[in-house]
Design a protein that fits this description.
The complex is a heterodimer of chains A (167) and B (326).
Chain A (H helix, E strand, L loop, with lengths): L1 E8 L3 H8 L5 H4 L3 E6 L10 E8 L2 E13 L3 E9 L1 E10 L6 E10 L4 H52 L1
Antiparallel strand pairs in A: 1-7, 2-3, 3-4, 4-5, 5-6, 6-7
Chain B lengths: L5 H7 L27 H22 L10 H18 L3 E3 L10 E5 L8 H14 L5 E5 L1 H5 L5 H4 L2 E3 L2 H9 L3 E4 L3 H5 L16 H9 L3 E7 L6 E4 L2 H6 L2 H5 L6 E4 L3 E4 L13 E4 L5 H5 L5 H22 L7
Parallel strand pairs in B: 1-10, 2-5, 2-6, 3-4, 3-5
Antiparallel strand pairs in B: 6-10, 7-8, 8-9
Chain lengths: 167, 326
């Protein structure tokens, strides 16, 4: 099954990327995620592995995932090594204004070999997974924009103080 | 008069082996008790012989414990089925899996509920397998009758082995997480009116095994299983009268009201569990020698474990607004 969610964030891609690529921040904005740990020596970028779990229905399901594609400020993709079969992608694209970013979160998952029950389980899980993705993007937007506002305010304050010092 | 012990009854029916003569004796008149109606003795003998035959059949079907029968691929393929059952029917919720050590052998000690259809085991097995991955060795102990029942052979692929000290030893030596229910058939068939009580019947074998193998105990408390049917009584007296304790290691002959049977005696055919909400909580590990010294007192450890579990069960019960609904 493939589930997708997207949102526009009022911040440049670099700021969004800083959130997405930081394993320490995943639990702060990813809805339904109960575990996100670095597994191995590489923390970020291609080859980084994470052990993640997402609560879906009555179980925390997840995988050991590995980042297989990482283009700074644009794309990050991963596939599962063990556990639930999944592949996912964060896709960032700068809007024409330059100060906004279009963020797309794609997740494909499956339980190959599980027959009719696997087929049913994949579909029954869709609404909850979709809710998790939507909420993750909303939380990401809120946190990134909040940080952006604070930075903008800090910049304005510094400029004001500089002007006051000159005067 | 022929002594109607199982041995004698079996010998009468040709089941005795080894060329031993059946033990025949005349009971003293004072020990005979009240006179039985004509024909009752022979009927009882036939019943006992039938039970003996069942015992033989069960014994021949009990699989030898082969931990290699556990099949991770089979488990993975069946997780969606368990997930559907657990999520949609029982609305299962498992908490505290992070309390279970990430690796190494561990003894998971649970309270058992739900009669012969134990939803707590289904919900917990699913949660454990998805949380730690099917690659982690996980075994559970089950009554001989469960493992020998026709159509339940697949349980062995999930890592279920017959309950015995030897199997516990094998599982723990293989670094597995081992789920045991010390209360066993005694606890699982308690009355629904005692559903919020942890009752291991003072069985302490799990503590001895944990000490012998020096593994931590993780209490696993569940609620809701005893609401999947209306369990009326364990029927211990009935089981004793029918000698099931001696013949089939059954201390109980439970009586319940359950789907689809209505009045359900024995629960041998299982039942359709009501969709009661199941909540399971794993508690922090107990390292026996660290907490109770080099040579812990079994009674002290037992009381400690049961008290912790009872407190957790009380808290889970307090969260519950209505039976079945949760």
């Amino acid at each position: 099954m493939r589930v997708t969610a997207q949102i526009d964030i009022a911040a440049p891609p670099a700021r969004v990327w800083a959130f997405l690529s930081d394993p320490g921040k995943q639990l702060h904005f990813m809805a339904g995620i109960t575990r996100w740990e670095v597994a191995g020596d590489i923390e970020r970028g291609v080859g980084a592995r994470y052990r993640m779990l997402m609560r879906v229905g009555s179980a925390e399901v997840g995988s050991l995932i590995e980042v297989v594609e990482s283009t700074e400020n644009r794309d990050m993709a991963w596939v599962s090594v063990t556990g639930l079969d999944q592949r996912g992608r964060w896709r960032l694209r700068e809007r024409a204004s330059g100060s906004r970013t279009h963020v797309e979160f794609r997740l494909s998952y499956g339980v190959a070999g599980a027959g009719i029950f696997g087929f049913l389980a994949e579909r029954v899980a869709v609404p909850q997974v979709q809710r998790h993705l939507n909420r993750s993007l909303q939380q990401l937007k809120r946190q990134v924009e909040h940080e952006q506002l604070r930075d903008d305010a800090a910049t304005r304050r510094a400029a004001r103080e500089a002007r006051a010092a000159v005067a | 008069m022929i002594d109607e012990t199982p041995t004698a009854a079996a010998a009468q029916n040709g089941h005795a082996t080894g060329g031993r003569r059946p033990h025949v004796r005349e009971a003293p008149a004072a020990a005979k008790g009240p006179a039985l109606p004509l024909g009752f003795g022979s009927l009882f003998g036939v019943g006992t012989a039938a039970a003996k035959a069942i015992q033989g059949a069960v014994a021949s079907r009990i699989p030898t414990a082969d931990l290699d029968e556990r099949d991770p691929d089979f488990i993975r393929d069946n997780l969606p089925r368990l997930w559907l059952l657990s999520s949609l029917w029982f609305r299962g919720e498992v908490r505290g899996l992070g309390n279970i050590p990430e690796e190494g052998p561990v003894l998971l000690v649970g309270n058992h509920s739900g009669g012969n259809m134990t939803p707590d085991t289904i919900v917990f097995t699913l949660a454990f397998s998805t949380y730690f991955g099917v690659e982690r060795r996980f075994h559970s102990l089950a009554h001989n009758l469960v493992l020998s029942a026709p159509g339940l052979g697949w349980l062995r692929k999930f890592g279920t082995v017959a309950a015995s000290p030897r199997n516990m030893q094998k599982a723990l030596q293989s670094d597995a997480a081992l789920l045991v229910y010390p209360g066993g058939d005694y606890e699982v068939h308690r009355s629904s009116f005692e559903r919020h009580t942890v009752d291991f019947n003072r069985r302490k074998g799990f503590i001895r095994e944990a000490l012998r193998h020096d593994v931590p105990i993780v209490p696993v408390v569940s609620i809701g299983g005893q609401e999947t049917a209306l369990f009326l009584t364990r029927g211990e007296g009935l089981a004793r009268a029918l000698r099931l304790d001696k013949l089939l290691r059954l201390k109980v002959l439970p009586i319940s009201i359950a789907l689809p049977w209505g009045l359900n005696v024995g629960d041998f055919g299982g039942h359709i569990p009501l969709p009661a909400k199941i909540v399971v909580e794993a508690l922090p590990p107990i390292h026996l020698r660290e907490e109770f010294g080099e040579d812990p007192d079994l009674d002290e450890v037992y009381d400690h474990v049961v008290r912790l579990m009872q407190e957790t069960l009380d808290a889970l019960a307090a969260e519950r607004r209505l039976p079945i609904i949760g």
